[in-house]
Design a protein that fits this description.
Bound molecules: inosinic acid, magnesium ion
Order of helices and strands: HEHEEEHEEEE
Helix content: 10-25%
Radius of gyration: 16 Å
Number of helices: 3
Number of strands: 8
Structural class: alpha/beta
Length: about 180
Amino acid sequence: MRLKTEPLLDAATIRARVAEMGERITADFAGKPLVLLTVLKGGMVFAADLMRHLDLDVELDFIGVRSYDGFHSQGRIEWTYKPDVDLQSRHVLLVEDILDTGRTSKAIIAWIEAQGAAEAALCVLLDKPSRRVVPVTPRYTGFTIENRFVVGYGLDYNARYRHLPDIYEFDDNPC
Ligand code: IMP
Ligand code: MG
């Protein structure tokens, strides 16, 4: 499989949008210490850029779940990493690379709420609303895209391509 020659979203476009999102989040959470909870591994690149646009009191932590096809038949997810920070009464911003069926985010948000967080806001770089299976609406969305499998800027296909600065589709779309 080969990537398309032209990126779907190039680094400059992503950079500008991430900066805008950071400004919005900074305004919305003014005066509230924030826990930036990054979903491993895909959210790492986005979170690293986004947090440098946050003029807030930010505590960074991570949450790990088994990726894409890592669901048991009942739709439960497998945890690979749980945050160290106590989420009780905290304002949590959950940072994800992409919102697809919504199962991952829904399960993580339920878990954050069960920890007694004051709020759990979802921030995604990409959203594929046509793929949604469970209802989840992000508070912050970078780009809404069609039903295409994309890689780069943190997003992988079989653990590859995460390091690419731009976001690409495949020539032959595996969706
Ligand atoms: P959801 O639980 O179906 O919403 O899936 C979200 C997760 O699936 C993301 O965090 C990604 O790891 C993975 N995923 C969904 N779509 C894509 C894609 O187009 N490229 C790479 N990973 C994807
Ligand atoms: Mg992921």
